[in-house]
Design goal:
single chain, 11 helices, alpha+beta, 6 strands, 322 residues, two-stranded parallel ribbon, 10% strand, four-stranded antiparallel beta sheet
């Protein structure tokens, strides 16, 4: 059987020739995303705005679609339903109502009346009110989670490569996070905890893609000591092009399947992931790699590493000689 190849061997795509338009496009996207965020903000979901969580269990498999239609007709604001665990368990999130605790309890009672009448008998396993203070804490923790992830990546790349690679990778990651927030600000899609999870996943995916390219750059810096850096980056990107396209392509296939057939509950998460994979792949090639041209990683550092490795091998050979 003939092996499948999406990219021919020994490609010579001049990626670096397009670096200036690409960086200009990225800078424009970052500015637009920041402006959108400042002007339009984000449509925070119940997780961040506060509301009521109701966990129910039905006798048979829950009619999620029927429940969603019935509860959305109550005009209580945003009401979201999520199936979890068994197919009889449903988590219902009700938007925080105007007024005090009595208003929240009244909304819960209305929901209970509808569920008991149309979908009963229903077992109410948990009813919790998420107040504004808890919501503020979730926003702070969400921001902290993303910043800690970026800081950890910065240290990891610094230790594994050099500070120039570390800085380039983190700038590319920030680029991905800012553009993703810009997308949600533009579309005003619900921004909840699943989207924060998607952002952290995007950070990990994009970092993995960037590390593969940087690893080949480091290897080529050792092998081609006199090759101009522009040509060396082009060669490194072409060397890893097949892997980049295969990884991103197969990931997108799975994500598109989840988006179209996974239901409304995970639609926001998968949309963020689809956007993140596309942007992450783009930034690895057109942001992270060209940044090395400006940061200028030193070849002598890797020469010293190579010399140390060779010295270690020679010492080991000498010790092994009788």
């Amino acid at each position: 059987m003939k092996p499948l190849r999406l990219v021919p061997k020994n490609t010579h795509v001049p990626f670096m020739r397009w670096r200036n338009p690409a960086i200009g496009l990225s800078a424009l996207g970052i500015v637009a995303s920041i402006v959108l965020f400042l002007v339009m903000g984000l449509n925070f979901g119940i997780d961040f705005r506060g509301g009521t969580l109701v966990e129910v269990r039905t006798e048979g498999p829950a009619d999620i679609e029927g429940m969603r239609n019935a509860l959305n007709a109550l005009e209580l604001g945003e009401v979201s339903l999520q199936e979890f665990g068994q197919d009889t368990d449903v988590l219902i999130r009700i938007q925080r109502q105007d007024g005090d605790e009595a208003a929240q309890q009244a909304a819960v009672q209305i929901v209970r009346d509808v569920l008991d009448t149309d979908f009963g008998p229903v077992d109410y396993r948990r009813i919790e009110f998420v107040g504004p203070q808890v919501s503020d804490e979730l926003i702070e923790k969400g921001i902290m989670a993303v910043l800690i992830a970026l800081g950890a990546m910065l240290i990891y790349i610094w230790l594994r490569f050099e500070w120039q690679f570390s800085l380039g990778a983190v700038i590319a990651l920030l680029h991905d996070v800012i553009l993703t927030i810009g997308l949600f600000s533009l579309t005003q899609l619900d921004f909840g905890l699943p989207i924060v999870a998607a952002l952290l996943t995007i950070v990990g995916y994009s970092m993995n893609d960037t590390v593969v390219i940087y690893d080949r750059v480091r290897e080529n810096l050792r092998k081609y000591k006199k090759l101009p850096l522009v040509d060396l980056l082009d060669k490194s990107l072409n060397d890893t092009l097949s892997r980049t396209i295969m990884t991103s392509g197969t990931t997108l296939l799975a994500l598109f399947a989840l988006y179209f057939f996974g239901g409304e509950v995970i639609a926001g998460f998968t949309l963020a992931m689809i956007w993140g994979v596309i942007i992450g792949t783009y930034s690895s090639v057109f942001v992270a790699a060209p940044l090395l041209l400006y940061l200028r990683p030193g070849r002598r550092v890797f020469d010293r590493d190579e010399d140390k490795a060779e010295d270690g091998e020679e010492d080991a050979s000498a010790d092994a000689t009788p």
